[in-house]
Every structure is written in structure tokens, then in C-alpha cells.
């Protein structure tokens, strides 16, 4: 007897007995504050009760249905947008992003990309104008972000749409010169946007000043017909986030007033004088936000995935590892299953602290940028800060989104066959999340940019320039490179793990730089040398970022107050698991750096397994501390009460009602199956079954006798 | 000027000039024979011209539409099924599997799983009966395979559906005793199947004889209404392969004649005497086929993915690495892009040779099983062969499907933003392929089974029993363990790489076994010890399989005739890249085994980059040699002629016609956007633009002066 209807729920309840930490305290630690936790609960409740966010049929919606639903949500969210402080509203969106990533993006293109772009790029008068036009309130206004082109993605400087100044009329002529210059992937273009922030090459008096931004109206506000010269198309089906109406846009000599160019950083006067910004990068500060949000999202979505996979692993039983036990064994009790999931639980928490740290860096940078007056003597400092935030956010965006994408897939596969059902929530989650790896800076390109920044910093530090916190290991690099793991005790400590990553980071930054120099000395241009050592740059970025993430986690854990609530002790263990697991995963790098010796790896493997078993013992309450409601998780497998099978079955019946008639029996099945009728009713005779059985049995028993003798 | 309509096509044509091998000879090498190549071409042409296989709108079909289309294909394929030799027909299906994985599976459940199951499990009389009932011809017959249950997947022995013998009526009563025992994931159940091969516990006179197979009719053939006692439901939306009508089945005391139990291996007589097979495994030989087909599919689908990513990488240009060049740089010329794709090209070819070898092993095993008479003295040999094929196919199924799934994702991401469009073909391909990792034996479980087999073989070899070819490295294990990489020259050779993997394999099999023994000695049961060392078993299986794949590749390449056609020289280079890349990826294992030294890894990295550049030089003709037609690839990005942008744009317009009216402007958009109207026509005034510009410029120029002085 292995089946009992109530067993899954009883099993999960039992997992919650006696956690080694105070659950409320852990929840607060994971949310930053009691206030944020309570606000999150409120948002989850509001969403669950809001008919616009009804999601029981979410996984069965077609692309077209999803788009309609998503627009209904936009109509609803605007109520909060108009009444809520922007910071609070952003927290609200962060919660919604976990429930419906597609909605988050569709609305985020307007609120995040478009309005941020206008805010950071416009003069104060321009900003006031666009606000007055309805930009913030979505009144007679919905923005989209026209950067990417069909033939140009990451390379913003290479885009080909032109904005040619016509001095006669004081206008710009926006034009798509060829197919490759078609604006592509533009979220909101197909069905929502009234206006677009168009990235185009500024051409004045025949001179090309590079890429600037222009606000262009796309549609008649009363009919939503495109304006003359504007061609818009739907780009259709995507891997995920089908709630977004991505489209393409072609401009055919479309005229906009000169005032529609965003002129905070670069200005064009009435007579066509162009003043360019002291530093091009200042114009792209707005793009940072997206990267930081993706690092934060990597943690949130990682938590969602592990909530589903972790709870199910506690409930699911398969095989009996102990023949005397009454029930089959919980998956979570198998060491191999602990190995699959516990590191991902640790990773989601590691990313959480990284996201917090990165958000903090972004806020600092944004304030500094906003406070910057033209000609400010702090300009150089701000540029340094911007560069550093850019480098860190590039690396974290790349490696956190990759880390979480893999984690979702591992979680999905850990459900066995059921992981292939959409109703688990994990398959759609993978499809929704995957886009993070390529948009707003392809991960590989971003990692290489970080790699380049690391090489520059190394060069600077060799010339005596002291590096900031993130790169402090370069300041005394000789000692860092020489460091070796002294003992298993050191390896088994947060300080030891940090030391290991520092040595490995220093090693691979140096290896990349040395190769870069060698290439230059053997006749390559700097650019060619940088390309040729790109694999080494990539490795340096990867090792550096792994160490960086661990350091944020360690620092945050060590800052926690010493209390008897068990929070610090628990998270210290989780940090240890994360650090050692990453070391085991990337052992090759630590071995190559010399910090670790091959024979020490066996200890690593044993210790990771032990820590997985320890974390497993409190995995369910730790997952509970992430505090995502059943509504947000929207997966029978991740339900709080553990009633997995019944709810999975019921959800499938609700969404695929058994009374629906066969959709193509008469038209397709019958013509095939009943190509002709015939009557056969001679089962026994045709089979000649009993004689055959006798024969087989006689032969078998003889053979068995013969085998026993031999 | 970077855009030219014809540039993509010219670029791709140029890539085909002067390959270092004879293209026709390479095609034959990759297809086994001229005959197979020509048959494949014929099948591709037939499919392309067959309206049932029309696929221009494939990526926009909803689940329900896909299912209808898929059934139309079944109706069409039956024409070939009835007229073609089964071996030839299987080759046909292999080609179709690359064009439409969902169709392949839906039809494969009937033809592969159901009929194979009946063939291998029934007596000759039973087989004749079911053939006569229309099984092979799909006449008044369509089979499905009722193994998996809601609460039991991989654990076939744990399933709970019962088949209780009623001696009074000479029938079995098939019954689903609880929700968890609901047959689940059954492909074809929802809308296609008339009959099901039900796996159920045989209960005779109150005794449970374990899981056997019973053929149960599900539906009335004239109406497709379910028969009394049979409950069928649709399990709805999946990650991919939505063309398959997976369903659930519950039986409520359904009676079938005794003759409907498959009785080749286990027999029940009229009076309820049960004879069990000498070895349970013999009953599951049929499941091997699926695993072997998945290894083969891993190569085919890997080739499809690299065809798309490789051709696009040649055509796509981004940034100018050389400022003097006329056009931007082809992605394929960036070393980092070569690093991303060239190893995957090599991997697809490595898997091809593995698939061929495994198919050969399967054929041998199947013949031996089929030839086996009850009580055959060769029984023990056949069981050994079966075990060995089972172990190899388990490992290859797991690691080849994982390898290709990652490869698809890397290829998808290598398209940058466009990789997220369904029309690239790669996102749907990922979703279709992903199921291979969890069905017919979850990959992790299969890897652990191989790990267990490796430990047993090691134990046997210590006791003096000589191991077969796949495990010959255990026969002189001391020497294998002591081997070290002597030089870069050795490392840079196929023989050297093979030696490295043998040492690493031996090392990790020994490590796993030693830990297993230590656990037993410290008081664990064998079962508990095996669970506790599961991570080490997993690692042993992974390292062993990597080496196994490489050895198949090397052996196949070395068997190629020495000719002037360049095929052998080219494939030797590709094998070298595959071997060294895998070494670099898994350097930690080679370092831990002692075979490789940390300082040798730098050479590895340099050499892999060099080989990537070499393979890149003939990547496009090598991809051409895979010979998949544009119809089968069905991606503008993978087109033979390279006309990517035009075709991508046109495909999107065909599938999202621009003349479609806005689907929800009146109902949703207008009410939001036009919440109230208002008139603003004071752009210039409100912005106060020109005064602001003057002010900014004055400040900026002062600041710049100040900055210059400082």
C-alpha cells in the first residue's frame, strides 16, 4: 500500500516541523524589512482578487489570447500607477513580474524603457512637455522603445535609421533606408504604442553625428491607424512572453519637430549647430536599470522555480530505498536529488544579495548622474562610478541570468516526466525567462565587456592606480596569486572560499592580460588582440563574477546580527554550500590557478554532499520563507499544502473539460481507421493460445533443469 | 554603407569556395552510404511536395491546430507504411523526425512503442491475432502505450494498476485503484487510440506477480466513445510536441479475455497457473529501441541546430573589427563565436558515429533476443549482451540528449535577440527536444544505472573477470590509473586524448567503488551505500560516457579510407576539436585523475581556439554535407542560399498579415488611452526649448574649458 490521498499533505506538513530558525525572522531577512514583506503580501492578495489577473487558465492561452489578457492587466494596473508613489509602484511590479513575466515586460517597455529614456535624455522642458502629453498616465499615450533593428542588435552605434535635419522647416526626417534598418522586436509596437523613442543617426548638413533619440508619434489616437509614412507589423510568435505585442516599424520620410529630439546630452539649434556630449556613455545610463532588474529577477524567478521543484520533491515518492519502510522514499531524501536541488536553493539566495547590492549601486549611480550639472567638476568621478556599475551589472546580468535559466531547466527535469507539462509552470517559466540571456546586451557580449574592463583595471593597477572594492584583489596581486589553500579547514570556511576565488580571479585576469600583451607584441592591433584573447576574457569575467557573487553573499551573511533566531547560522551554512558547490562545478579554474590541489577536490565533493543533506533538512521552511503565494506560483506542484496530485488532476480537467466532443473524429480519424470494416471473432482459434502455452512451459522447464545442472 | 540586399547570399556563397574536402564524399561519409543519402533526398522531396506536411505556418499553430495537422500527417504516412519495407520506412521516419518531432512521436507511440511491445511480448499466435486485428495497418486499430502512471514514472515495478484474474470467466479485470495509479502522459490516448498496452500488476488467486502487459480496447470503433469502465481525458498543453494528444486513462473494473495478456515471457493458464520468466529484464528489451533512437536523434537534431546557427553566423555581420573593411565583420569570424559554435558542430558529428555504433549494438541484441528459444543454452550470453547494451544505451541516451539540449540553447542564444523568435526554429526545437531528457528513463536515473554497472564491472574485474570492449580499460586498471600525459604532442593527438579519458574513467570508477566499499564497511547496506555514493556514480558515468563517445568517433574516423578526397583529414581535425574541447570543459576531472597537469591546460585552451578557427574555415561546406533541405530546416536563418533577412521578414508577414484589423482597439485600448480627450498644441512654448539649449551650451562650454585647464 503506497497510495494515500492525504499522504502528500501530511508529508509536507511534517517537513515544517522544528526548523532550525525562526521562520518570521528568516522571511524578514529575505525581504529586507518587515515593511517590504507586508507590502508584498498585500500585493499578492490584491492580485489574486483582481479579475484582470485571473490565471487558472494561464498555461492554455494562445498567443492572441495572452495579448488580450495582458492588455486587460495594463488597464487595471494604471489605477495603481496614478495613485501610488513610484518606488512603491516598482515594488508592486516586482511582485507581478514573478506572477506574469510577459505582462511585466509589456508594461515595463512603456514605463521602464520609454519613460526612463525620455527622463534621462530630455531637458526639463521636454520632460514636462511629454508628461503633459500623457506619458506617465498612459493617457492618449503609450510609449515603445525603438532601438534594435533587424540587422543591428547589440551594436547601437551601428544602427542605420536616419534623422536628417531640415533647416527649412525646423524638422527632422526620420527614415528607414533599407530592410536591415527596420526597427525590430519593438515591444508594444504591434498593438499598443502611440509613440516611439526612435534611435536614429543624426544627420545635420550632411554630417553624421551618430545615434541619438527622437520621439515619434506612430498612430492616430482616435483610430489607432498608423500615421502617414509609418509602417507597423506584428512579429508574431516567440519562445515566451507572448503577452507582449512585439512589432517592427519602418519609417518612410516621417517628419517630426526639432523639439522631438531628446536634447539633454546633445543639442541641435535652430540653425543646425550640433553640440555633442562630453561622454557618449552618459546618454545610455538608462539602459543600466534593465540589467540590474534582470539580476534581481534572476533571484526571484530562481526562488519560484525552487519553490515548485523543492515542494514537489518532498511530496513525490519513488522506489523504496528501505524495504522496511511503509511508504516509498521521498525524492528529497535521495542524495542525488539533494545534489540537484539544494545548490539551486542556495544560488537563489546568493543572487538575492547580489541583486540588493547591485540595486544599491544603481541608485548611487543614478543619483550622481541626475545631480550632474553640465561642466560639473565631479564629472570624472561620476564617469568612473558609471563605468564600474556598468562592468558589475554587465557581469551579473550575464551570469545571473544564465545561472537561473539553467536552474529552471534543472528544476523542470527534476520533476521527471511531469516537468514537460505546461501546468507545472516550469516549462513556461523557462520560455519566459530565456530572453534575459540575449536582450538588452547579449550575455556573451556583456561578459566580454566585463573581461575588457578587468584587463584595463589590471593594467592600471600595474601602473600603480588603486582599484575600488570590486577589484581590490588586483591591488596586491602578487600576494593574491601566490595564495594557496592551506588545509581542509580553510577550504571549509567562507573566508577560505573567498580567498580561493580571489586567487582564481587574479590568475585568469592576468592570463588574459598577458595573452593580450603577447598578441600586441607579435604585431596585432589592440582591437585584434582583444578579439583573439576573447575566450580568456570570457573566462576571466566568469571567474571574477562567480567570486563577486560569493563575496556579496558572504558580506551580507556576516552583517546579519548574532541572534538566537537561527537565521545567521542557517544562512552561513547556505553560503558555505553555495561557495563550495561553485568551487566543485568550476574546479578546473581553481586547480589551474594553483590555489586548489587535485587531492583536495575529494574533500570538496564529500563536503558538498554533506551540506546538501544539511540544507535539505530545513529546505521546505527555507523555501516557505520566500513567501510566494499559491496564486503567484500558479503550479499544483509548488502548492503550499502539498496536495499535488489532486490539484494537478483537477487543473487539467478544468482546462481540458472531458465533455468536449472529439474535435476531428468524423473528419479525420474515422476515414483513416475505418477504411473498411471487417468482422473477426475468432480470438482463441486464431491465437491457438493454450497449446502454445503448454509447449512453451514444457520447453522452459526442461531448459531450467538443464541450466541448473550446468 | 553596410547594407546590401544581396550581401548575405554573396557571403554564404563565398564560404562554399574551395572546401578542403570533396563535398559529395563527405556527404556519403555522413550518411553511411550513397544509397541512404539518395533515399533521404527522395524522402525530403516527397515531404516537401506532400500537402499534409505543409509547414510554412508551423510555428504559429496552436496546440489544437497542431494536433489536427499531425493527424492529417498520420493519414498520409500510412500510405507508405503499407507499401514499404519496414527498414526503409524507419529511415523515412528518421528524416521526418527532424522536420516534425511531434508527429514522429505521435506515430512512434503506435508503431514503435505499441507494436514493438506486442511483438516482443506476445506469443506468435497472439502477434498474428493483433496483426489480423489491424494493428500494423492502423485499420480499426491505433495503439497507445499505457506504462506511466501519475504517481509512478521511472519505477515500472511500482505501478499500481491491477489486472486481477477471474477464473470463473477466464478474464482479467483491469482496474485503477486510486488517483495516483491513473495512466498518465499516454501519447495518443486523448484522441487517437483504439487499444492500449496496459502495464498492470498481475494478480492471480490473490497473489501479486508484478507488472505485466495487457492489451485493452479503449473505444468503440464506430463512434470513438470510450467503452464502459474506461475514462479518458486530455492532459493538455505541454512544453513542446503539442501535436501529440497525450491523455490520462482510468480503468474501472474493465474486463478483457485472458488471451489479451502478452504471454511470451510470463504465462497464465486457464486454471490460473502462473509461470514467470527466467529473467525479468527480457520483458523490457523493447524499451531499448527508444533510447537508441534518442541517441541517433541527438545527432540529427544537433545538426539541424548548427545548420541554422552556423549559416546565420556566416551571414550576420555586427561591428567592424577592422576599420578599413568595407562591411561589418561576420559573426563567424569572431573567435568567441567560433568558440560557441564549432565545438557543437563537432559534437553533432561525434554523436552521429555513436548513434551508428549503438544502432549496430541494438540490432545484434534484438536478433539475439528474437532468436532465443525457451531454455536456450545461450541465455546467459544474451543476458550479458542485453546488460551491456542497456548500460551503454542508458549512458548515451542521458549524455547525448543533455549535450544536444544545451547545444540547441547555445545555438539559439548565438542568434542574439532573434533567437527568441519562434520563426528561427530553434526555440520550438528546444521545446520539442527537451522531453528526451526525462522520458523513457529520466537521464539522471539512467546515468546512475550506468554508474552502478560500472562499479559492478570494476568489482568483477578485480576478481579477474575480463571486461568487454566498452570497459576494457578496467582489465589492466593499475597501468591505466598510472598513465600521465607526457607532452603537448600527446595531448594534441587522438590517441593521447583517448588515453586521458581512459585514465579519468578508471579513476572515477575506482573512486566511486572505493567510497561504496567504505560505506558498506562502516555499516551501510549495499542499497544505502549505493545511494550515498550516487554523486560519485554519476560522475563516473559522465566521465566514462564522454570517453566512450570520443572513442566511437576516433574509431570511425580512423576506419575511413586514406584517400585524396580530404574527408579523413577533415574529420580527424573535427575529432581532435571535439576531444580537446571536452577535455577543456571537464578539465577538473582530468586534473583530479592526475593524467593532466594544471599547466598543460593553457595549451589546451590555445589549441581549442586554434582548432575552432580551422574548423570555422570549412564550417559551411561541412554543414552542407549534413544535407537537410530548407523544407526540413524550416528556418529563414538556416536557409541554404543565405537570404536570411528577406525571408525572415516575408515569413513574418505571411504569418502575421498586416491587413488584419486591430484585435482589441475598440474594446480595450480605446477605453484606456482615451479616458478623456484634451488639446495641447503649445510644444515650443511649454518646452521653452531654445532658451534652455542656450543655457546648457553656455555652461557646457565653460565647463569644458575648466576641465581642459585642470
TrEMBL record, chains A, B:
It comes from the Eukaryota. Transmembrane segments: none annotated. It catalyses: a 2,3-saturated acyl-CoA + O2 = a (2E)-enoyl-CoA + H2O2. The keyword Lipid metabolism applies. GO terms for cellular component: peroxisome. Keywords: FAD, Fatty acid metabolism, Flavoprotein, Lipid metabolism, Oxidoreductase, Peroxisome. Residues 500-673 form the Acyl-CoA oxidase C-terminal domain. Its main location: other. Its cofactor is FAD. Pfam families: ACOX, ACOX_C_alpha1, Acyl-CoA_dh_M, Acyl-CoA_ox_N. It is found in: Peroxisome. The active site is at residue 440. FAD binds at residues 148, 187. Residues 284-455 form the Acyl-CoA oxidase C-alpha1 domain. Pathway: Lipid metabolism; peroxisomal fatty acid beta-oxidation. PANTHER family: ACYL-COENZYME A OXIDASE-LIKE PROTEIN (PTHR10909:SF352), ELECTRON TRANSPORT OXIDOREDUCTASE (PTHR10909). Heteropentamer composed of five different subunits. This is Acyl-coenzyme A oxidase. It comes from Malassezia nana.
